[in-house]
Amino acid sequence: MLSPEILDYYRRGGEQVRLTAGTGRLEFLRTWDVLTRVLPAPPPRILDVGGATGAYAGPLAAAGHAVHVIDPVPDHVAHAATLPGVTAEPGDARQLPAADASADAVLLLGPLYHLTDRADRLAAWREALRTVRPGGVMVAALITRNAALFDGLVKNFYADPEFRALVDGVMRDGVHDSTGDRFFTRAYFHEPREAAPEAAEAGLTEVRVLAVEGPMAYAGPLLGDILADPERTAVLLERMRIVEADPGILGATGHLLVIGRRGPH
Q1: Would you state the CATH architecture of domain 4-144+192-261?
Q2: Which of 22, 112, 234, 236 has minimal Cβ neighbours within 10 Å of its Cβ?
Q3: pLDDT tens digits for range 143-170
Q4: What does the DSSP assignment read for the chain?
C-alpha cells in the first residue's frame, strides 16, 4: 500500500479540487479528450486503478461505462463510491483485487508516478495486463522529468533552497524525494524515452506515448484566460491533438499518457 508520507498527502483532500482549475483543468480536459478516443464505446467495464475521488470515473459512468475504482486511500474510495454508476474498493495497483480478464479497459492515471522503483511500476503494469481482456486497452499517466523544473519557474519556487535541492534530485535520478506538504510528495518523474520501454517490457503491445498539457502547462495567467473562453479552449484542444505525439513536445509537458493493449492471448 501507500507509504505514510504519500497517504498523509492525499488525506488532506487536494484531489477533490486539483483538476478543476489552471493546469489541473487542462490536464483533465486533455486526458478526457484522449480517453474518448481510445476507450471502447459504452458500456464496457472500466477498472480505474488509483482513480482517487472519481474525477474520471464519474464522467465515464455518466457516459454509460461501468466503472470500478480501486484506490489505496480510504477517503478516496468512500467519495468515489457515492458517484452514480461508480463502484469502489480499496486496493494496491501492484496486487489488484480483480479477476483475470475482467475489464475491457484499465486506467492507471495515478499509481505509476508514486512507484519510485521500476520493479514496482512493472508489477502495476502487469496487474493491469492480467485484469484486462485480450485486446483490451490500458492507459497510464506519468509525470515528466522536467515538470518540477518548469513549474518552479512559473511559481517562483527557486527562492527556496529546499526546492532547488528537490529539483536537482529529480533531474539526477527521477525521484521527487519530498516528504513534506509544500512541494507535492514522493514520486517518480519519467524521462519520455523511458515510458514506452517500461510498458513494452511489462508485456503491452501497440504502445504509444502522448503529451497531455504540452507547453501550455506553464503559461501562467494566460492559461486561465484561455480556459475561461470556450472557443479558445476548443482551439487549444484541437491544436494539441496535432502535436500530442511529437517527440519534441514530450519533454515540455507536465504529464504523459502511455497507451497500450493486451495481446490476443
Answers
A1: 3-Layer(aba) Sandwich (3.40)
A2: 234
A3: 999 999 998 998 899 999 989 999 999 9
A4: ---HHHHHHHHT-GGGTGGGSHHHHHHHHHHHHHHHHHSPSSS-EEEEET-TTTTTHHHHHHTT-EEEEEES-HHHHHHHTTSTTEEEEE-BTTB-SS-TT-EEEEEESSSGGG--SHHHHHHHHHHHHHHEEEEEEEEEEEEETTHHHHHHHHHTGGGSHHHHHHHHHHHHHSEE---SSSS--SEEEE-HHHHHHHHHHHT-EEEEEEESSGGGGG-THHHHHHHTSHHHHHHHHHHHHHHTT-HHHHTSSSEEEEEEE----
Residue for cell digits 459504452?
Answer: 42
- What is the C-alpha separation between 69 and 55, in angstroms, rounded? 11
Antiparallel, parallel or unpaired: β 187-190 and 132-144: parallel
User: What's the grid cell of residue 245?
Assistant: 505525439
Contacts of 87 (CB under 8 A, 6+ apart): 67, 68, 69, 81
CB proximity list for 184: less than 8 A, separation 6 or greater: 9, 148, 176, 178
Give me the percent of the chain exceeding a pLDDT of 70: 98
How many whole angstroms separate alpha carbon 209 and alpha carbon 257? Answer: 6
CB 220 within 8 A of CB 154: yes
